[in-house]
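User: Could you check the structure of this?
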Amino acid sequence: MTRQEWSRLRPPTLGDIETLADAAYAALPERFTRLCQGLVIRIEDFPDEETLDDMQCESEFDLLGLFRGRGLTQGVHLSETGEQPNMIWLYRRPILDYWADSEDTLEAIVTHVLVHEIGHHFGLTDDDMEEIERRAE
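Assistant: Sure, the predicted structure tokens are below.
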């Protein structure tokens, strides 16, 4: 690639990551997405300071995504008035940083992070999801 070609390249935007996340979500089996009704997916550059503190992150690049809300195992049907909707955040800059050192496609990474965070919505722990991924390999 020439210098001029490199100079025209731009990193994927928040909108680009949102498009990838929307496509990944649309490709999920309907039996899963039906259980995610009302789930809000947001794309941000980085987690906020409160989230970094809550998650005990050493760097703003440590967290690729986050689920906040009441998971299915916690009784979504028991939600109280005034509660925020269940939300998933995908963090663009940490995802891009991870992608830069990965052999995976950006699409695969966004899909993995989104599915992982949806797993939290279903009440799965990180250990549960790692075990599922190990079994799938």
